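Friendly challenge for the regulars: who can give me the structure tokens for this chain first? No prize, just bragging rights.
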Amino acid sequence: MVAAVPAEDAAVVVVIVAARLLVPLLIPRFPLVIVAAFLLDAVDNGLLRGLTEVDLSADGPYQSWDKALDIYYLSIAYLSTMRNWTSRPAFRIGQFLFYYRLVGNVLFELLQSRAMLLVFPNTFEFF
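First reply, four minutes later:
Bragging rights claimed.
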């Protein structure tokens, strides 16, 4: 994706993507860092829109990157639940919600249909 953006925008894209890659690595040690990862996910689009000329439309390259980065940080959060949660029922609910969203992301990529993200919402993140 960085190769597809103008040179002046590349630095902003690299910083945002690096933050989205590095911050989640703290989740296993400090579980509440997921709030920071969630906030990064919430503001990245606005930052890119305001600071760059990156195509953020539904057909643009960032949509797939954004979904991949979402799955990345949610996977780290899911691994943390496997390690840290003692309640089996709570873990099972989280497990279902994580895999449900994962199916939605796969269908979104295969079908190129944003409706899949509505049918398979990211409720794991809030759980």
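Residues 64 and 109 are 7 Å apart (CA to CA). The mean pLDDT is 85. Your move, everyone else.
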